[in-house]
Specification:
The structure is a single chain. By secondary structure, the chain is of the alpha+beta class. It has two domains: 116 residues, no CATH class; 121 residues, Nuclear Transport Factor 2, Chain: A, CATH 3.10.450. A hairpin with a 2-residue loop joins strand 3 and strand 4.
């Protein structure tokens, strides 16, 4: 076997790992594939004799490629939000090939991908490489142009966001979550009475203009009217998942993994008294989203 063929074989042995890194960095299968291909092109133009640890070298290169792409996203302010939302891998029947299914066999959660999109590029890289792939900080540091200590701090900030360490006391957040999850379960199940049980009689639902285009009004008042509206959109509830929205328990709706609607809740004495529904891309970008611990 000649040297180019041997190098290609060694690269293929690392492909799944590189795709896993790139997907978590970029949240898009297409972009992940492009980043892996760019990594191969850089390898093919390099002198492999000077590479002591090929796996580490490839991980560094694909991380740099992804970091450049993330920074480019931030500079393209005119791009719609959907262009940068993570693509949820559904099933082979949905057109995903077996290699991509195996790539995410450890089940990267949709909520994690959505939260990762809220991180700064360097924070995302530090968190993904260290927390998900156990890359040491002294190897991450030169990629982000920081010291190992600074790289550790980047990952720490990202970790706090991902784990949802907000300011609400645990007992308050737990109660909020219980009520919001009951609302979500009743919506999914089409259970009108269960919805009424968690709604304050004088509840108000307010929607921004983008969200209102999906419903009949910018504002809905009263438990019965709100429950009826929730049942109308029960089909979207299967794409919904609880998450922290600006520190309080809310719901994100992300069909096919693309952030579509965010709902924030105000809960008083075990009842939902107010819901804000947001779908405007500019407003969604401003939200602080975080995962809820299982």
């Amino acid at each position: 076997m000649d040297e180019p063929a041997r190098l290609a074989e060694r690269f293929e042995a690392n492909r799944d790992h590189l795709q896993a890194v790139a997907y978590r960095m970029l949240g898009s299968l297409g972009e992940a594939d492009d980043a892996v291909q760019e990594t191969w092109l850089r390898l093919s133009r390099s002198d492999p004799s000077g590479i002591e640890n090929l796996g580490g070298w490839l991980t560094t290169v694909v991380a740099r490629v992804c970091l450049d792409r993330l920074r480019s996203r931030r500079s393209r302010r005119e791009d719609p939000l959907d262009a940068d939302r993570p693509e949820l891998i559904l099933s082979r029947e949905a057109g995903i090939n077996p290699e991509h299914e195996a790539l995410l066999a450890d089940s990267v959660g949709l909520a994690l991908l959505v939260v990762l999109e809220t991180l700064a590029p360097a924070e995302r890289l530090a968190f993904v490489l260290h927390d998900l792939f156990a890359v040491p900080f002294d190897e991450i540091a030169p990629i982000v142009g920081r010291s190992p200590t600074a790289a550790r701090q980047l990952a720490s900030r990202a970790r706090r966001r991902v784990r949802g360490t907000a300011t609400l006391p645990d007992v308050v957040r737990a109660r909020q979550r219980e009520v919001v999850e009951a609302f979500l379960a009743a919506s999914r199940g089409g259970d009108f009475d269960a919805l009424l049980a968690v709604l304050d009689p004088d509840i108000v639902v307010r929607a921004d203009q983008a969200a209102a285009s999906l419903s009949t009004a910018r504002e809905v008042r009263g438990a019965s009217a709100v429950a009826e509206q929730a049942l109308t959109f029960a089909r979207l509830a299967r794409f919904a998942q609880p998450a922290l929205v600006n520190g309080a328990v809310g719901i994100i709706v992300a069909p096919r993994g693309r952030l579509f609607v965010v709902m924030s809740f105000r809960v008083t004495r075990g009842k939902i008294v107010e819901i804000e529904v947001l779908a405007d891309p500019a407003r969604l970008r401003q939200l602080d989203l975080a995962l809820l611990d299982d």
